[in-house]
User: Fold these one by one.
Assistant:
Number 1:
Amino acid sequence: MRQAFFYAIASALAFSIMNLFVKMLGQAMPAAEITFFRGLIGTVAVLAYMQLKGIAFSTENRGMLTIRGIFGGLGNLCNFIALAYMKLADAAILFQLSGIFVFIFSTLYLKESVPKGAGKWLLVILAAVAIMVKPWSFSEFHWYSLYAIAGAAFAAAAYTTIRKLTMAGHHNNYEIMFYFLVTTMLVGGLLMGPNFVWPDMRQWVILGIIGGISVFAQFFLTGAFVATNAIVAQFLQYIGVFFNAMWGFVIFDETLSWMTILAGIMMFIASVMLARLKEQNVKV
C-alpha cells in the first residue's frame, strides 16, 4: 500500500505539471495536435528505453493492449480540450470522476464486489458534479465540462484495462505504456485534420516537456495500478486537484468560487470514504 501511495502521488504531481504546460499551448494549438506530439515523444522515449534494457514485447493480449491505448488516447484528447478552456482546478476536479467510473467499470468488468454503504457516497459525488456543472442553468453551464467528464470516463476504462492486464501477469509496465503512447499518437494524428499548426521554438520546447513528463507520470500511474486495486489507486491521485489549483493560482491567476470549493470537498470526502470501503471489502 505504501508503494502504491508513493506512485499515485508522484503521478498526480507529474500529471499536474503536464496539465500546466498543456494549458499554455491549448489556446494556440489544437488539442489533437498536442495529443499527437505527446504520444510521439513518449513512444520514442519508451521504445528507446525498452531497447536499451532489452525488454521484449509479449505476444499475448495485444487486442486488450490496443483497446487500453485507444481509451487512453481518447481520454487524453478530451482532457486537453477541457484544459484549454477551463480553469485548471475545475478541470482537475472533474477529471477525478474517473475514480467513480473505475468503481463502476471494475465492478462490471473485473467483477470486483461493491462494498456496502457505497451508494450514498456515489450520490454525494453526483451532487458535487451537479454543483460544479450547473446543468439547470443554460447561462452558467460550462460546455467544456462535458469533455472533462468524457475524458474521465475514457481514462477509467483505460485504468480498468491496466488492472485486467496486470492480473494476467504477462506484461511489463513499459510494454503497457508503449501501447498507450503509440495509440495516443495515432488517435491525435487521425483527428488533427487540416488545421495543423507548425510549432515555433517555444512550442517545441513545451511539447518536449509535455512528452517527457508524461512518460514519468504514466510510469508512476501504471505502477500504482499494479501495486493495488483499481479503486484505491485512482482515489489516491485526488491530491492532483490541489497541485492543479496551485499552478492555476500561481501561473494563471485563477481563483475558485465557493461552489467549486464545496464541490471539491464533497468529492474528496466521498472518494476517500469509497476507497476505505473498498479497501475494507478487499480484506474481508
Note: Residues 201-227 form the longest helix (27 residues).
Number 2:
Amino acid sequence: MILRVNVSFSYGKRKVLKGVSFEARRGSLLAIIGPNGAGKSTLLKCIAGILRPDGKVELDGVDLLHMNPRERARFVSYVPQASVPEFNFTIEEFVEMGTYFTEGSVRNALRKVGLWDRRKDSVLSLSGGEYQLVLLARALAQGGRVILLDEPTSHLDVNHALRIMELLRELREEKVVIAVLHDLNLALRYANELLILKGGEKVWEGSVGALSPKILEEVYGVKVEFVRGRFGTAVLSSL
C-alpha cells in the first residue's frame, strides 16, 4: 500500500506549500517535522481533504483529492490536534462518530487503545492523554487505510506520549501512518521515515538512519548532536 503526494497550496496570494512531494508506505511510520510555520499541518489537511490543494494525492493509484467526504472516509482517517472536549458524550458515543460514513468497529478501536472497559465514562472526565487516545480510537473506528495525526503527543505527559507512539508503531503494520511531530526525539525514536519541511518546501526526505545533524542544524538554526543508544537516537542541542 503506497500513498503518493505532490501538492501545492495557497491562502489567497500567500503560498503555504510549494510542490511538496513524497511517498509513504504501509509498514513504515512517517514523521513530518520542521519549524513552526513550515506548512506541516496544512500538508496533513490537504491529504485529508479538509483543504483543496493543487496536485495529486493517490493511494495505490486511486485519486483521493476528487472524492467526496463519504468516499474519502473509507480511505483516510484524520486525527486533529487535541482540544478540550465540549460536550458530555460517553467515550463510546464519541468514538461512534468516526463510523458515520463507514463500517468500522468501535469495539475493536477502543480495545486497541485500552479504553473499552471505560466506554461508558464521559469524555469530560478524561485527562489530556486519555482524550488523545479517544481521538485515536475514533479515527481507527473509521477504518481508513491511511491514518493522519497532527501533533498527537502535544502537551501530553511522558507516559501518554510514549503510549501514543507505541500504538502508532503497531498500526504501521496494517496502515499507512503519517504523523506531524514537534518532538524530534520522539520522531527519531519511533519513526522509520522523515519528511522535513521549511517555508512550505520539502527540505529532506529519507530514513531516520540517513539523517545527519547538519540537516537539522540548517533547518532549525541551532547546533545539534546525535546520541545513539539502546532505544534509538536522541538529539541534543545548544544555542
Note: The longest helix spans residues 128-142.
Number 3:
Amino acid sequence: MPVRPTTRLSRADLADLNAFRTVERLRSFTQAAVELGITTSALSHAVRNLEARLGVRLLNRTSRTVAPTDAGTTLARRLNIGFAEISEALDELNAFRERPVGRIRLNVLKDGARLVVAPLLPRFLKRYPDVQVDITIDDRMVDIVGEGFDAGIRYGGTIPEDFVAVKLGTDIKWVAVASPRYLYHHQAPVLPKDLLSHSCIQIRTGQGTIYKWEFRKGDEYHAIDVPGQVCVGDTVMGIELALADVGITYCPEKRVERYLRSGELRVVLSEWSPIEPAMYLYYPGYRTVPQGLRELCDVFREGMLEDPVAHSDEP
C-alpha cells in the first residue's frame, strides 16, 4: 500500500485555515474581517487561495449569505478541535511565564463598559502590559463561546447556566429620574402606577423586548409597562433625553450620580427603588482559562469593591 505523503503546513496555511474557520463560524466575511483585523478583500483572497490549494469549495457565497459546503462543515469541525488544542497548549506554556501574556476577547454590555471596563481597564493594562484586550460592546445576549469571546460582562440574573460567574462589586440600585423642568410641568408620581400617566423613556432590552420597570417597597413589587413616545436601547440616550426634559428614564443610580448631585436630575419614587444583582464577568468553565483573564477578574473585583459607587458616572 502506498504511503500517503505528509502535508507540511506553512505559517500562511495556518493563517488561511484560521481565516476560513472564522468566516464559517460567523457566516460573514465582514464580521470575520473585523475580528481578524484585516480587510474584507484580503480575507476573501485568503479563503479563495485555500480552496484553490485544497481543490475543494469550502464556502457557498451569495450577495447576502455565506454558508459552508459539506466539505467546509467537516473541515471546520476538525479545525476547531485542532485550534482548541493549540490554544490550550499555548495557555499551558504561558503558565511558566512570570506574568500573563496573550489576548483576551470580551463581550460587554454598555452599562458594563461605562461602570466597570472604562474606569478599571487602565489599571489592568498598566499592571499587565503583555496582555491585549479586545472589547466588543453589545447589549444583545450573545453566545460568547460560539462567537469567539473568552468572557462576557452582564447583569446577574441574565448569566447563562453552566458558566463561571465572578461578581464585580455590590448589587445595584435602579432609579427612575427626571429633570426638574419636567417635574415642574408634571405632577411627580407617588406610586409606581402613576407612571402610566407620564411620558416615560422606554427601554428596549438586548433580547429585543421592551423592559417593564421594576419597583419594590417591602413585600410589594410592581413591574410597570410604562408608556412613552420614545423607546431607546441605550442607557446613555435615555439619560440624555431625560436631561432634555423629554420624560422619566430608568437606569442604575451609579449612571446618574453626577446629575443627581448637580440637581440636573431628580429621583422619583425613591422609596420604591429596587436593589438588583451586580455586574458579573462570566466565562465557560469547561475550557482552559485564557492567560490574563483571572488577573482581569481580580483587578475588576478589587476596583469595584474599593469604590462601590463606581469610578465614573458620566454617560
Note: The mean pLDDT is 87.
Number 4:
Amino acid sequence: MSTQSNKGGRSLILVSVLSLLGFLLVWEALCRGGAVDPIFLPAPSQVLARAMSMSDQGALFYNVLASARRVMVGFLAAIVVAIPLGILLGTSRVARSVFDPIISFLRPLPSMSWIPLSLLWFGITETQKYSIVFMGSFVPALLYVMEATRSIDPLLVRAARNLGANRWQIMREVLFPGCLPQILSGMKIILGLSWTCVISAELVASKEGLGFMIMNGKEFFQTDTVVLGMVLISFTVLVTDLCLRLLERWILAWQR
C-alpha cells in the first residue's frame, strides 16, 4: 500500500514538473516568435541571463539576503509578542475586553499605511523595515493565536485545575501544546504576509532588497530585472515555507 502511495506521489511530482516546463516553453516561444514585446514581458531565457549577470556581480544574493533578513526579524518579533499575548487574550475575558478596541483599530490597517509614520520615526533604516513587517504581521498572528486558544476543549482546562495546576501551568502545559498545531499552520500564512509587507516597504524607501531591485528595474525599463525580482520573491517564500514545514514536522512529531 505504501509502495503504491509513493509511486502515486512521484507521478504527481513529475506531472507538476512537466507542467512548469511546458508553461516556460510556451512563454519562451511566444516571446521569440514576436507575439509578446520583450519590453512588456521578457522571455525566460532573458530573465535567466539577467540572473546570471547579477549573480556574477554579487547583487543577486545581497538583495535576497537583505529582504530575507528583514522578513525574519520582523516576523519573529511579531510571533514572540503575539503568542503569549494571544494565549492570554484567548483565556481571559477581562484582558480581551481591554485589548479588543485596540485590535479592532489596528486590524483593518494595511502595512502600507504605516510607512509614512515609520519613516518619520526611524528614517530610511533597517529598523523602519523591521517595524513595517512587525506591524503588518502582528495583528493577524495575534488573532490566529487567540482563535487557536479558544478552540481548546474546556474540559482539559478544568481537569488541569482539578489536579491543582495554577494559571501559568495551565497556559504552559495545556493551552500552548494544545493550540500549537493551529498556531504553526497560521504562522505559515503570516510568513507570506510578512513578505508582502517587506516588499511594500522596499518599494517605497530602500537601497537594497528585492523590492528595491524591482523598483530599480522599473525605473530603467529593465523588465527582465522586474520579473527576476518577482520570481525570487516566490522562490524565497517557497524555501522559507519548506523550512517551516520541516520545523513543524519536528516539533509536532508526537502528532504522527
Note: The chain has a mean pLDDT of 85.
